[in-house]
Design goal:
By secondary structure, the protein is an alpha/beta fold. Helices cover 50% and strands 14% of the residues. The chain contains 25 helices and 18 strands. The strands form three sheets. A seven-stranded parallel beta sheet has the order 3-4-2-5-10-1-11, with helices on both faces. Strands 14-15-13-16-17-12-18 form a seven-stranded parallel beta sheet, with helices on both faces. Strands 6-9-8-7 form a four-stranded antiparallel beta sheet. Helix 20 links the parallel strand 14 and strand 15. It is globular, with a radius of gyration of 27 Å.
Length: 627
Amino acid sequence: MAHAVADALFNKKNCLIDAPTGIGKTAAYLIAAIIFSNKRHEKVVISTNTINLQEQLFKSELPMLKKVLFKDLRFSVFMGRNRYICLNKFYKIFPGNVKIVEKMEHWIKNTKTGIKSDQTILTDSSWDDIASDSDTCIGKKCKFFQSDCFYYKAKRFALNSDIIVTNHHLLISDFLLPEGRKILPEHLFIVWDEAHHISDVATNQFGGSVSTAKIALMINKLIRKNSGILHLLRYKMAMHADDQFYDLLNCLISALKQLKKRVKLIEVSHKMMMLHNEIIQIDNDNRETDEIKEAVEKIIAAAKPVIKAIDEFSDDDSILFEKMRIITLIEKFADIKNILKKFQFKDERFVCCIKHSAKAVTFQISPIDVSDFLHPLFAEKTNILTSATLKAGQDFSFIKQNIGLENPEETELKSEFDWNNQVKAFMVEGISPLDKEYSVKLEDAIIKIAAAVKGGILILFTSHAQMNKTYDEIWPILEKAGKNPIIQGTMPRYKLFEIMRKTESILFGTSSFWEGVDIPGDNLSAVIITHLPFQSNRDPVINAKMKYYETIGLNSFTKFLLPDMMLKLRQGVGRLVRKRTDRGVIVFLDYRMKTKSYGKTVSSSFQFDVKDLSIDKTIDEIKEFYE
């Protein structure tokens, strides 16, 4: 793999590398990138999708390579600005909270990065109050700027680095910025790890969403009784302001309350009209998005004279700081307004929809196809894309079509694992989501499999409703049998994984649990796939993508839905074997793999054989495997 990466870098060729787990993928591309950077004096950006992998590269792999092989290596990690703490904000917001200040001061003295994921002291909401941002940054006027500011230290380190570790979101955002406003240092060479996520990240980047929960949180930060920013401002301005200022302040508060009331009405109406987690397509001239945009515009207009008046009445640092906090939130309202503007103009390249969940109503606009948006990035720079799941079926055509990558070099590396000895895979006869008795058969099968498996189990669902229903029905039976069933949503993800690593538990998961689960050894010795992970054509975005494929002359099932499902399925089964010493069973409880015409295509994409057996014979073979 290192040779493939080096060849692509030295010859400025885009390259796709399907690299299975366990072959030393990260070390291979890092070594190739470092050698190239040293010889050509070029920066190489390494981009990941997850913070976990970023931290693995920055805190483990790169320091090890520097120590053992490359003594002069200069490397850094660079994240979005709001991931870094602003020390100026911190000391002004938390001066009275002694416990928090003490804990945070200890963290600040010991952290090398000052990034959010390095601490567990503050909640997300509290972190937002002290996150670095361009609107409130006073630059060289700040006493922390020269040597203590974590964000500017990270920028300086990146400027002087050979290897820069960042993430897909920031990398794509940076590419879209005009010259002079770019965040990352100039670079022409990129290695994308976890590259199967590029399309999803780009979809979010080129689209946008507005959540009623987010709007309510922003409003509360400004007008919350006693502790809201505008209430604090009213108190601090008592010695400076006149009646005209308070009229302006009351006008802003009134505009915020009007939006809060409107948002609440939207949530109540959709709770009555829509099912939980239902997504429906909406027209571009949607009345609700228009009303929110108009209310937001009133807030922005009302804030301008308040901000101007603060400058006229006071030069008190604490008051000017509250002004900066107001500006930050008004800028966020401006971002919301800009997203809502997109809803007003019909653009065939985008689809607009609305989603209702337990906590919010979300208005979303998404590009149907991101390949045209991404094409300039792949044309102007040298890109190496790697992942354990880039191939769907026998080739790379799906990922190339999806992201607009033309004529790349293609490399598929073979797994180091002895799959048929390490894994036994079964497809259980007669259990299909198309069957009216599916839920009952599914529950019965899981109970029997759990009794036969020695070790922890991961059960993967495609529906929260099905997952919750199944868990509610069988957890007492599993517990009575001495098992420890746990389910996504009852506690943070990392705590569920901690439980899995310490005990032989049965984890029920969906969505994000199809990947990123890394629990070696007997604590994860079985994966159960309850449902082939097809995306639903009831989702307006998926439906629009299917129509797009048909309009360009491609079969939307075979060229989009099927390969997309196969990539996710490969991620799911890949949770089981992470090392050569791992072993276990995989059970498919979706017989469409046998009865549907695409079944052979799906089965042939695995590196292990799949036995087609009844549930009783499956149980017998599982017991035999563990003996």
